[in-house]
Amino acid sequence: MADYEFFTLDTDSGALTTEPIEVFAYPMGDVTVRRTGDAELTSGLQALWVRTPAPDWSVVFNWASLVASAARRVLVMPYLPSARGDKDLPSPARTNARLAALSGITDIIAVDPHSPVWLDAMTAANPAVGRWELDLAAIVSDAVTGSGPYQGVIGPDAGSRGRASLVADRLGLPVFIASKSRDQATGKLKGYHPPDGVLDGRYLVVDDICDGGGTFALLRAAIPADVSLDLWVTHGGFTGPERSHQALSGYQCVYTTNSLPSARGGPVRATDLAPHVNETLRRIATNLEGAQ
After folding, report:
1. Taking CA atoms, which of 97, 102, 157, 273 is between 20 and 30 Å from 58?
2. Contacts 24+ apart (CB under 8 A), 26-31
3. C-alpha distances in angstroms, 26 versus 31, 37, 114, 250?
4. How many Å is the maximal CA-CA distance in the chain?
5. Residue 291 belongs to a domain
6. Is residue 292 in a domain?
């Protein structure tokens, strides 16, 4: 799969069809987009699916300009770039959000944002852009069908409580929240305190992002060995695949989505987001209000 894919929605079949658009680089490396061939572009709904965690925003801006006559110009960006930079100064989350707001899109589709900051910053910069979030609980529930049975859902820290609770409610399970242990002098993560009541059985750990997997290895080490764990991470960065897979070896099954190219291959089970995106695009095409 390419980092940027261009689609239109076939209103009769509800399927995505490829549009004759490509990313083009000039001799000195500056990037734009252009039509390929003489085919006319669809005037209804145009979609740009961004699969890279570090997008070139000039691609998005130029695409929105190229398809400016389309009724809806939808940026499919399941992973919001730099979403975890919501507390940093300067804030890359807010910077990327403002770029999205100014790019010329009419709608954006994401799944499991790290926090509300990114999308809220985009809305503050351009309230007209429609915000659409895929149903995380439904995606996880479908992915783990046939696994378990689980005794509960575990959130690694307080920040994961919201998403862990959504998944737990969908699965009809209790939710347990672990807590982090940090070095008082440096603030660095030392390990985890396991949630009370998790002593044996099988549980599903739910979080939004996995980099190298070290924090999840620490969580696994903190929970009693008699407990069997599966892991769901919506966005599998898996930086350094060999190290990541080794760090996650304490989990029976590791689930993610194909929001990032790093989720391809290896022992991880990746859920294809295309059916969920298609459904949302159909809703956008028939929604005159421009918002979820």
Report:
1. 273
2. 30/58, 31/56, 31/58, 31/59
3. 6, 18, 35, 47
4. 64
5. no
6. no
Helix (H, G, I), strand (E, B) or coil at 105: coil
Is 186's pLDDT higher than 80? no
Structural domain including 108 reads 4-134+274-286
Query: Around Cβ 184, how many Cβ atoms within 10 Å?
Result: 8
Asked whether the whole model's pTM tops 0.85, one would answer: yes
Gap between the Cα atoms of 78 and 128, Å rounded: 20
Show the tokens assigned to 176: 């347990």
Q: Does residue 106 belong to any structural domain of this protein? A: yes
Q: What is the pLDDT of residue 288?
A: 57
The angle formed by the CA atoms of residues 23, 109 and 140, to the nearest 5 degrees, is: 120
CB of 177 closer than 8 Å to CB of 165: no
The residues facing 72 across adjacent strands are 45
Check whether residue 20 and residue 48 sit in a common domain. yes
Residues 6+ apart with CB under 8 A from 160: 177, 206, 207, 208
